[in-house]
Design brief:
- It comes from Sulfuracidifex metallicus DSM 6482 = JCM 9184.
- Keywords: Transferase.
- The protein folds into three domains: 11-93, no CATH class; 95-207, Beta Polymerase, domain 2, CATH 3.30.460; 217-305, OB fold (Dihydrolipoamide Acetyltransferase, E2P), CATH 2.40.50.
- Helices cover 21% and strands 38% of the residues.
- The chain is built from eight helices and 21 strands.
- Strands 1, 2, 4, 5, 6, 7 and 8 form a seven-stranded antiparallel β-sheet that branches. Strands 14-15-18-20-19 form a five-stranded mixed barrel.
- The protein is globular.
């Protein structure tokens, strides 16, 4: 039906239909025999999601590393990632097919009306529907996960969409989950990315249409750095994707910092908006650049707007 390559926010069912995985990142790893993907649901016959129960109850790398699934160390990135082996894949679902289901009236009316309300404004080009709607496991209180594909389309939709009301539950849950003060979470919250429409929670996710080559360069993890002052230029669309990636200017004793990569999605909009940041993360040295990583499994990291 749809494309065969894996992109961020795609879904994978294993061959026994016992587990549902969410693809993370756009790294093309099929030829290596695996896909970067996190286990999110497991079937037990009793779960709220049509017999599936949620395994990963809260997002964040600090929760993901505890997930009961396979992790694989990637030496060129000097990090471990959750994986599903290609030999285990029974079904690959793409959000583009999820939107097709909605448009053909195959989804609950309340959820369909929310999707239609948004696409009436932004159109259907480069749009998909993911999450439980795509999986077919949605229930009466499910969210709507909209996916926007491509750099130009992502920028268009980001600046165009203003219909969502504030999701106060997300603010409270994020503060608790990441152990951050509410005042900081309010800076991180972006109503263009997450909110409420007609009583339904909605998330707007952005995905690059390009696959990334794994091991394009060799990188090595060094040590945590704290309270580093870095300047981020506003409007870098790569900040909207996962992982968020932005070019920066700034220095530490070890030299120039060229880039921030955040595996914690909560910092995505803050990086997109740019400005002077105070950053805690892990120093990564690659062949031609230095980076600070947010979301290392041993050092969570943080990004704060410089005041």
């Amino acid at each position: 039906m749809g494309r065969s390559n894996f992109l961020d926010k795609d879904l994978i069912f294993d061959k026994e239909r016992e587990n549902i995985f969410h693809v993370i990142t756009n790294y093309d790893t099929r030829n290596f025999g695996f896909v970067f993907a996190m286990l999110k649901y497991k079937r037990d016959g009793k779960g709220l999601w049509r017999g599936y129960n949620r395994v990963l109850k809260n997002y964040g790398v600090h929760n993901l590393v505890k997930n009961p699934q396979n992790f694989m160390y990637q030496p060129c990135l000097d990090a471990s990632f959750p994986v599903v082996y290609t030999s285990q894949i029974g079904l690959h679902l793409t959000p583009e097919d999820g939107l097709d289901k909605v448009m053909k009236g195959k989804v609950d009316e309340d959820l369909t009306n929310v999707v239609l309300s948004i696409v009436d404004k932004i159109g259907t080009k480069g749009v998909g529907v993911g999450g439980s709607i795509l999986a077919g496991t949605y229930h009466s209180k499910s969210d709507v996960d909209l996916i926007i594909y491509g750099k130009d389309r992502s920028l268009d939709v980001y600046y165009q969409l203003n219909e969502l009301g504030t999701d106060n539950e997300w603010i409270e849950e994020t503060s608790r989950n990441y152990e951050l003060p509410v005042d900081q979470v309010l800076y991180l919250y972006d109503r263009k990315r997450r909110g409420i429409l007609n009583g339904v929670k909605v998330s707007i996710n952005f995905v690059d249409i390009s696959s990334y080559k794994l091991c394009n360069e060799l990188c090595e993890s060094f040590y945590p750095v704290n309270d580093v002052s870095l300047y981020v230029e506003e409007g870098q669309v790569e900040a909207l994707f996962y992982p968020a990636r932005v070019k920066v200017s700034g220095n530490i004793e070890e030299g120039k910092i060229d880039e921030i990569i955040s595996y914690e999605g909560i910092y995505s909009s803050l990086l997109f908006k740019g400005g002077k940041m105070r950053v805690d993360g892990v120093l990564i040295k690659c062949e031609n650049r230095n980076m600070v990583i947010i979301g290392d499994r041993k050092f969570r990291g943080n990004i704060r707007r410089f005041v």
